[in-house]
Design brief:
Blueprint (H helix, E strand, L loop, with lengths): L3 H41 L2 E6 L8 E6 L2 E7 L6 E3 L10 E9 L2 E9 L3 E3 L2 E2 L4 E4 L3 H7 L3 E5 L7 E6 L4 E6 L9 E4 L1 E3 L2 E9 L2 E7 L7 E4 H9 L3 E13 L2 E10 L3 E2 L2 E2 L4 E6 L3 E2 L1 H4 L2 E6 L4 E6 L12
Parallel strand pairs: 3-10, 4-9, 16-23, 17-22
Antiparallel strand pairs: 1-12, 2-3, 2-7, 4-10, 5-6, 6-9, 7-8, 11-12, 11-24, 13-25, 14-15, 15-16, 17-23, 18-19, 19-22, 20-21, 24-25
Length: 317
């Protein structure tokens, strides 16, 4: 006859075996979920293009491969489509239409073609349309052979990551884990350029276009600029105006600087600001305050204030 101890030992062994088996199954289940999650995340976070950024990457240039040749293009999140110089027209596809383009209140007629096959590094841009815009003023200003812009149509369902702390730019497929721990705002759309955010300035909500093609700091539409001049928040430089080249031509506008205020947690005192006529913009000069992600899959602008900001208000722009 078995003693109680003889019976209890197998029972304890069976319970222990079931416990260990259940634990192992749980571990295997979690590992499987992690592997699936990692695989999906890796696919979603595929790096389409990556490049080193200078401390003052104004503007951001990328190499565009077209028809077996490589041209210097600017990355312009303020543009709804790609643009090329007239010299590249022989490389374009079928002519589609002529469009009236409004660039900061300046209207011009632009030819639109089917875009050729364009590669940025090893990344093939999605099929789209491309406009023709004269780039000679940009070439003269920067002393570089600039032949086009890459606009927001190329970034559809992608994320643009600007890591100024580490001097890296990445374009990723889909949304990106690099935005974890960042603050975020919803992205809206303005004329196809889907990089519009709403934030507070001077106690009022305003919409700003995140424009990497604008090498300035901040810009305000005329009414907003005039209102902040009137209440002393902006001080103009004696009525001084400056000429800026846009995709629709050269624009002359009033300039000034903030005397006070805050935008996205940044003290605006002495920050340059332009009267852009029709659009509020956040340019590259101001974006240098953050590491940021423009997520065009989830339509989010994610940002984190940099701990160490370079002396960007020193006349470099």
């Amino acid at each position: 006859m078995n003693s109680p101890a003889d019976v209890a030992y197998p029972l304890r062994s069976m319970r222990l075996g079931r416990f260990v088996g259940d634990a192992l199954r749980q571990i295997v289940w979690f590992i499987t979920l992690w592997l699936i999650s990692t695989t999906a995340s890796s696919a979603d976070d595929e790096v389409l293009y990556e490049k080193k950024l200078d401390p003052f990457p104004i503007p951001i240039f990328v190499p565009a491969g077209i028809g077996g040749r490589t041209f210097l293009f600017e990355l312009d999140t303020g543009a709804g489509m790609d643009f090329v110089d007239p010299a590249l027209k022989p490389l374009l596809g079928m002519h589609r239409e002529n469009q009236i383009v409004d660039s900061f209140g300046h209207l011009s007629v632009m030819e639109v073609f089917d875009a050729p096959a364009i590669k940025i590094g090893g990344w093939s841009l999605p099929p789209s349309e491309v406009g023709v815009s004269d780039m000679h003023r940009f070439r003269n200003h920067f002393g570089l052979d600039i032949r086009g812009y890459i606009g927001m149509n190329a970034l559809k369902n992608c994320s643009l990551f600007l890591d100024f702390d580490h001097g890296r730019m990445k374009i990723l497929k889909g949304s990106s884990n690099v935005s974890l721990g960042m603050e975020s705002l919803d992205l809206g759309s303005l004329g196809g350029a889907q990089a519009l955010i709403k934030c507070d300035l001077g106690g009022k909500p305003m919409e700003f276009l995140i424009d990497t093609g604008a090498n300035s700091f901040l810009g305000l539409r005329h009414e907003a600029f005039a209102a902040l001049v009137a209440n002393g928040m902006i001080e103009t430089n004696g009525g001084r105006k400056i000429g800026a080249d846009t995709g629709a031509g050269r624009m002359v506008h009033l300039i000034g600087h903030f005397t006070r205020g805050e935008l996205l947690g940044v003290n605006l005192r002495n920050v340059p600001v332009d009267d852009t006529n029709t659009t509020n913009i956040i340019g590259l000069g101001f974006l240098l305050n953050f590491n940021s992600v423009i997520d065009l899959k989830n339509f989010k602008f994610c940002y984190r204030r940099r701990k160490n900001i370079p002396p960007i208000y020193n006349g470099r722009l």
